[in-house]
Amino acid sequence: MNNPTIDRNQIESMVRAAIRGASGATGQCTGAAVAEQPPGWVDGKPNLRVSISARHCHLTDEHVETLFGPGSVLEPEKDLYQDGFYAAKQTVMVVGPRRRMLPNVRVLGPTRGASQVELAFTDSISLGIDAPVRHSGKIDGTPGCVLVGPAGTVQLDQGVIRAARHVHMNFADADHFGVQNGDMMQLIVRSPDCGVIFEDVLVRADEAAKLEVHIDTDEGNACHLDAATEIKLVRQGGGACGCGG
């Protein structure tokens, strides 16, 4: 029986089609893998970031107009690590009792339903305000202050807090650490001669967040964060699961 012959052009065409098919399949697989990776993850695992949150304030739409003029809106200057949040170009002066003041306090956006000022402990001492440690948005019964902008002033009856340390994470991060929204964790920072273990780091989990711990300037200085040689986040009360910084 004679073997069937295949034209050389047919062979080349078949090879090219096979290569295209393989490349397309590979590209689809790679695209799916990228799409499925949770926000902030690198190489298939959480990527921990620890950020020092300096003094700042959040404003309502009404207070933005009062402080910066009718029709004013917040103007983004720098995006923050969490998507959709930014440091605005605008700043305000925060005035406490006996005319003690902090100039050029950055406004963060977007606007909120209630204005709020977040300080470190040393900031509150400088202002003469006994600011309690609170989680963001929990401002009932807190002290107030006066905000001064280029177009006007706002008297806050409440809203000055020392922001409690917390960690933003998505649900994949939460599964990785074995925690859920509202749980507490430990942040372990190893630095030359001044390592610190921070307790009571509140988990704030949602679908879109990226893994990021927020501490204030006093806490960042206490652990010498810039010189840290090791950073871990672990479940409070034990557990072996952790993530290096």
Characterization of the model:
- This protein is an alpha/beta fold.
- It is 23% helix and 34% strand.
- It has five helices and 16 strands.
- The strands form two sheets. Strands 2, 3, 4, 5, 6, 7, 8, 9 and 10 form a nine-stranded mixed beta sheet that branches.
- A hairpin with a 5-residue loop joins β4 and β5.
- The longest helix has 29 residues.
- The protein is globular, with a radius of gyration of 26 Å.
- The N and C termini lie far apart (70 Å).
- 31% of the residues are buried.
What is the strand and helix layout of this fold?
Blueprint: H1 8-36, E1 49-53, E2 56-58, H2 61-68, E3 76-79, E4 86-95, E5 101-109, E6 116-119, H3 121-127, E7 133-134, E8 145-148, E9 153-156, E10 160-163, E11 166-169, H4 171-177, E12 184-190, E13 196-205, E14 212-216, H5 217-222, E15 230-235, E16 242-244
In short:
With 245 residues, the chain is α/β, with parallel strands linked by helices. 23% of the residues lie in helices and 34% in strands. The chain contains five helices and 16 strands.
